[in-house]
Amino acid sequence: YTWLLVPLVLLSCGKVGSLFGSKTDPCSLLTVAEAQQALGEPVEEGASSEPKTCLFKAHRNEGNTVTVQLHDSSGQDRKAWFNKERLRRDSQLIPGLGEGAVRIDSASLSRLTFLHEDELITVIVASTKQKHLADAVTRLSRNVAERYGATLTATIPSTLTSPVAEIGRAH
Q1: pTM for the whole thing?
Q2: For 1-33, how does the pLDDT look when each residue is reduced to its tens digit (9 = 90+)?
Q3: Cα–Cα distance between 85 and 89 in angstroms, integer?
Q4: Rg (Cα) of the chain, in Å, rounded?
Q5: What does the alpha-carbon distance between residue 97 and residue 150 come to, in Å, rounded to a whole number?
Q6: Considering only CA atoms, which of 32, 27, 35 is closest in space to residue 127?
Q7: DSSP state of 44
């Protein structure tokens, strides 16, 4: 019976992210309920539109969608693309998500891409109905990152005053 446990022990010794890698089905990283909450309306089951893309469409308006995409390129190409995205004027860095995350917002679409072990994962929320796309895509991306095995850290709201600032004011 011990010989049955050896493969399990060997598998558990590897990095969590490496268990997923390029074989992960992007539709497994998000639920219908999460997509519905992000869009604020009922959605269809996620469907693979390409080998590494999953699309959740709203029932009434197919233009309102949630997309999860695993990027298919070499590690160096991915990092170069990610760095280029970070430097865009309309990009916003999102702390506490993977090894780096950048979000780009427009009136009817919000796209967040995070880096995890040389893998790029993008979550897109597109809607003409939903008004809080940035919040929705950030929340979904945290769920996707958690399921993908990426690092998540709690972020401190910017409204809190740091102890160092308080000490400076006391004098």
Answers
A1: 0.76
A2: 343 333 333 333 333 333 444 578 999 999 999
A3: 9
A4: 19
A5: 7
A6: 35
A7: P
Going edge to edge, which strands form the sheet with 47-50?
Answer: 47-50, 53-57, 65-70, 119-126, 109-116, 100-105, 91-93
Q: Tokens representing 62?
A: 């197919």
Q: Which residue has the tokens 């010794």?
A: 13
Structure tokens at 145: 């990152």
Helix (H, G, I), strand (E, B) or coil at 162: coil
Spatial distance between the Cα atoms of 121 and 114, rounded to a whole number of angstroms: 6
Tokens of 130: 């939903």
Torsion of CA 125, 128, 134, 138, to 10 degrees: -30
- Assigned token pair, 50: 């390409």
Supply the DSSP string of 123-155, one letter for each residue. Answer: EEEE-SS-S-HHHHHHHHHHHHHHHHT--B---
pLDDT of residue 22: 57
Answer yes or no: are the C-beta atoms of 56 and 43 closer than 8 Å.
yes
Burial class (CB within 10 angstroms; exposed 0-12, middle 13-18, buried 19+) of 92 = middle
